[in-house]
Amino acid sequence: MRAFGADVGFVEFFSEDPAPKPGDLVISQKLITFPEGNATKMVDSDYETYSIGRNEVLDPPAIGENSAAFKLIGRDRNATEDHIHYVITFSQYDIYEMFVTVGPDPDYELLKDLAVKAAAKIP
Prior knowledge:
- The chain is of the alpha+beta class.
- It contains two helices and six strands.
């Protein structure tokens, strides 16, 4: 992010439980502003970051000027089962947004719906 000149940003976490515990489903939203043209470059760089290993590149929702979506597959140390996270990123003007699910039974359709609603709020 620094390489693209990230200006200002924030991260927000959402959960059904106001004090989520390990194993609870949590959705995060990250919003960062960049100099003109660099938010789109940030989305492009997500392909290098998230398309490695067993991860899958998904068809992203048609939002913003550029968008990407991934299914991240991993396994915690000493765990016997994989865990899955979904990531959707998009850019619009100088804004880069990232949505991520963390926890059991991640819902890609919910994440996509949130990203589409967020993109619609950018003037």
